[in-house]
Amino acid sequence: MASFVSSNLAEKGNGEAASESVLSPLVPDGSIHGFESLHQLLETSLKPELFQEVSRLLLGFNCGKAIERVLLPEIATSLSIKHDFDIRAFCFHADKEALRQPRIVRVGLIQNKIVLPTTAPFSDQKKAIMQKVKLMIDAAGASGVNIICLQEAWMMPFAFCTREKRWCEFSEPFDGECTQFLQGLAREYNMVIVNPILERDLKHGEVLWNTAVIIGNHGNIIGLHRKNHIPRVGDFNESTYYMEGNTGHPVFETCYGKIAVNICYGRHHPLNWLAFGLNGAEIVFNPSATVGELSEPMWPIEARNAAIANSYFVGSINRVGTETFPNPFTSGDGKPQHSDFGHFYGSSYFSAPDASCTPSLSRHRDGLLISDMDLNLCRQLKDKWGFRMTARYEIYGDLLSSYLKPSFIPQVILDPSLQKR
């Protein structure tokens, strides 16, 4: 199978792998010349001592050491082979403390393609995606994952930018079909599940929201968060589908830790990240849908920077694959009409507050990424860097309050010599 080409190359020697990646006719769409990810390309192409140094610079050190891999049970790896999804697991440590025990939680991220063409009946599309995602949740459950987050609007094609209203049929109440489906899995695996859906608000005139429903480990609904920021760039002009959220920046205290959800475009807004941190988040998930041409250079940077600046862990999830729609659409940016948004490049990964991060999942395959993380690291980094104590929020509060007034005047000091000209 084409999807195994890059995995097989990783087991070979450097020169042999590099040569075969060029010559192989089985280069998957969305890969990097046959490689799953940039990290795998570097690992396969560089001498071990060079790769070790490059990896240190790209991924950072956790507690002074390279990120450790975690072995998963055979049932999970067997599922990944049988159903062709990428699976990887890593561990973030914290320093040993005298007065607190480690607070280790196992967290998972799922990225997935749609299954059927967008021309298939909607009910069939939805059912097929649910069946696929269940297999990956089964693998996560077999691996002892405590909290898992799915990608943005995981239960449908990312049809928002077509501006065709018929795709609204995929929407559902916050406690609808997909939530009920995941509630059963949450109970089965004693797992908290973050469920990002297109929500139809039945109590308020059937307004649509881009929503993450937080399902507790007993199958209960803890609460929900609605996407704060809507993009208006290129194809991603989603305001024709749903409104900016009205839930603020909630943090959900689960039995495994305090979590929050910064949905997709919100990752471009530093104050959005900040607000979740001020409310006490220890893990923030960023379920997304973004394509390479638009944002891939930003993808490894923004969430990692947020984890550092706010002293919490971040799980970044991007869908994967190219989704083609029956009717061409335009984006208003001068491009000719087209039928897809481009390649959703996957590359889901975890970031830690000490600036370390995991290698990412595949750019072209479904995937499950698992990480053990000691939440004690959040406080340890707050103590080390003192960002909360040195932040000077009162200064920024005054500036923001002033900026919102029509009478705002920017604080610009003019060079006196310029007035003499």
Automatic annotation (TrEMBL):
Superkingdom field: Eukaryota
InterPro entries: Aliph_Amidase/BUP, C-N_Hydrolase, C-N_Hydrolase_sf
UniProt keyword Hydrolase, yes or no: yes
Enzyme class: hydrolase
Listed PANTHER family: BETA-UREIDOPROPIONASE, NITRILASE C965.09-RELATED
GO molecular function, one term: beta-ureidopropionase activity
Its EC number(s): 3.5.1.6
Pathway assigned in UniProt: Amino-acid biosynthesis; beta-alanine biosynthesis
GO biological process: beta-alanine biosynthetic process via 3-ureidopropionate
Alphabetical list of Pfam families matching this protein: CN_hydrolase
Keywords: Hydrolase
Residues in the signal sequence: none
Domain CN hydrolase, residue spans: 105-375
Name of the molecule in the record: Beta-ureidopropionase
Catalytic reaction annotation: 3-(carbamoylamino)-2-methylpropanoate + H2O + 2 H(+) = (R)-3-amino-2-methylpropanoate + NH4(+) + CO2; 3-(carbamoylamino)propanoate + H2O + 2 H(+) = beta-alanine + NH4(+) + CO2
Family of this protein: Belongs to the carbon-nitrogen hydrolase superfamily. BUP family.
